[in-house]
């Protein structure tokens, strides 16, 4: 049982069980407030009935012309609430709002190339790799995971406004751009 | 543009560049150079003031700042620079005046109007912000300003300084205004939200329904969670339970919505029936719907099955169903027992539905306790163990049974450790919860037996688990608590650092190491680790006051009205955070152990503490984060592992504030009138109800039973001591304190010496002769110290003798550090009477002797305590102590862990105990030297 509701500023007092996890970054308060002050409808969370937070998503709308789209900046679920399709539900809302309110052509997100579990999950939700962004996650030298650790896949899912699916391409994994070329 | 002004502009640009890159020094140099050429240029002065404030040269900046303000600037660049200066000084009220004046001079400047509006917003002047927005709407005809004026009226209504009787009037005003909007509010979701929240507030449900039932209204609620949240509330307030249920049912069945709120809506509608036959029918109907959904969803979604449990439980409560939902709970466990959340999901039903009849349920769970061979199977066993433990009755919780459980959990942990062997090192291990369960049981065993050996065993297990699962933050949280209880603050701090606490987490989690941190402080020895930790943890409050206002302004600009009250509440919760001020208190307690008590320290701290005392505090501390797997009938893990078993909450803070404010007030020369004149910047806003309150000095004299109940017995003794001490010395302070005119004259002299400018706005009356003053009354007769003061240190000596023999290091530290604190309070109280001229003039010779004797007696006791602490510390600095530590831990468990590992931990604990005892011991001697 999970409650889907808007992410509010005061949820920052409650997100420790999500953010103490190694994969979730805690940013300055300005980061969260800047999203909430512009795209509050693209920020939501899942909460257990006892008030414990389970996961959240922060998104924004950006781009110009046919590149106008919804972007997933952060999507995270606390360790104890994984494998419950919570991410899927939050993504569904973000896609709905990107489509109906922002009239975007697609939704996109970045994921570490090494994170095959997440990539598989997003593929299951209809996302596909659009391009590979070199050194998106910083260039700290090649680690154990090789380039896959620092490179990101930019994954996209076309929305109704893109009926011909022009925002995606089949050979996205082979298209490599540098981090400077993306916003 | 004239040639010279173009030249000046070119010359000013480098100043901006320097300011942008943080080269404040070079900005000042350039300013000075240009000021020689253009001595009256206001922009240069404003920029110099900014550079000065950024180089912490507050006093010099103030002079320039006042000069610029006096010129009533209108120039864009000057206003912007001054905005930053005044924000840096916390002078929002002056900023408001500055913009007001400028806007008055050019009322058609829309940009300036906005800036003025935002200045009021930043200062939370909702009333005047409302007026400005109204005026701007009239002048510039932008609908946005109308909505600004609406929300400002609402914010004013909700402000603490607004009298309750004014509130409804303001809401009605806002309502009247919103109705005048040329365009309907539904053209934007956030305007719509604002409109709805106003209607909800005023109870105008018909009007709200009209908005909500319109097609646009429906479509907004379908895509905007915030608006839908409001709609839900408004329907609920109208008692539209049935309609809400029907709406939710459609969402669940047709749109496949699985939001738990929709299920709850259907359930609430189902039970909104008085007649028992009708109720039965409606329950059956709902059960049918949910059963179908549950079958459809299978293992994909757990909501429908849980909803069935909820229905059956409520049916049971209402007497329609004979039995509690045990069989459904079992079905749920069979299906979702391999998900980590199963325990949390079923917990409420174990508590409320099953009551005392847990036997069937427990035996079902026990049948699940097989040796698991896969990770999901292990998760299922863990859930069964957690649920069994949660349901334990009081009689089942004995030392023996708890230790048996410890072995059960630990054995299973080590047997299944291989299941997670192939996971990447960044992943959590599937068996981590077993160690946490064992730690819970060991802590319970410690509570039952008072034997710290169980805590040592818990540490061994948790530390071992961290070697396998290095990111298991839950283990670290428990370890921090345990190490502190054992008097080993160093490893506690290491684990805290490993948690990588950042930003806002400093507010919610710094309590882990900073609550009663002065117990472990070595500041007296010059080791400022904890003191620095306090300062670092409070950075977040600075960012809050610097940044959050910007985002409130941004939310206004972007018209995100749903967010504005949230941001304001957030800002306020951080600004008036309990943790913030508890840390401040701890920091002061540590500060006085390494800094001499002089009038600067006394005055500054006093002013700050007084501000804090009248705050309405918010407790943002996160205790829910602890892995609490204790039985429902037991105390929570958090509660069990509090240092000294006492929470450091509002009453604790209030008690310590009272002690310190009273003593600092007596030691200080500042009375309220002087303080009012010397203090720069804004004062905290008084709450509407504060008018009827007693004066501060009255309020700090007495301690409430609630305050006393959160203190340790040693802290209570300190309160009694401090109260008698200040009660005794109060009259002498009041008599000997120089009159306000003398204090002001002295302050003016000091300022002029420092900055070369006289103190502004203060008229110093001429003083006769050498600055001494004659009193009309005779000095109060000197009496001996009351017994509670005179005998305080004797009492400490006795209590120290008792704790000396116990094995609790932390109790020893507690008595010692509070003895030291009592001494520092005595020193603070007697600073005034150190001066021989004060003593002579006021005929306080007997008092001075009295104080000297008291201090000497206190020092004697402190020196003995110091020697004893050092001796006790030494006893931990050898192999025997480590061996004792190793031997104390549970042998059944140590069999699984290598001897070296346990020995290393023992060494870590002993070393830390040695260091802290020796440090505090030696520190006491330094404190005596510092304050004598």
What does this protein structure show overall?
With 183 residues, chain A is of the alpha+beta class. Chain A has helices at residues 16-19, 29-38, 86-100, 116-124, 147-150, and strands at 3-6, 43-47, 53-62, 69-77, 106-112, 128-134, 152-158, 176-178. Chain A has two domains: 1-104, Gcn5-related N-acetyltransferase (GNAT) (Aminopeptidase, 3-Layer(aba) Sandwich); 113-182, no CATH class. Chain A contains five helices and eight strands; from the N terminus they run βααβββαβαβαββ. In chain A, a hairpin with a 5-residue loop joins β2 and β3 (53-62). Chain B is mostly helical and 932 residues long. Among the domains of chain B are: 15-106, Serine Threonine Protein Phosphatase 5, Tetratricopeptide repeat (Alpha Horseshoe), CATH 1.25.40; 399-499, Serine Threonine Protein Phosphatase 5, Tetratricopeptide repeat (Alpha Horseshoe); 502-625 and 643-668, no CATH class; 711-756 and 781-931, no CATH class. Helix content of chain B is 70%, strand content 0%. At the A-B interface, β1, α1, α2 and α3 of A face α14, α16, α18, α20 and α28 of B.
Superfamily (CATH H level) name of the largest domain in chain A: Gcn5-related N-acetyltransferase (GNAT)
The largest β sheet of chain B comes out as:
none
The two chains with the largest interface, and their residue counts, are: A-B, 50 and 60 residues
Morphology of chain B: globular
What oligomeric state best describes the polypeptide chains here? heterodimer
* The CATH architecture of the largest domain in chain A: 3-Layer(aba) Sandwich
Beta-strand percentage range of chain A: 25-35%
Pfam family, one (chain B): NatB_MDM20
Family (chain B): Belongs to the MDM20/NAA25 family.
Protein name (chain B): Actin cytoskeleton organization protein
Region (Disordered) (chain B): 758-781
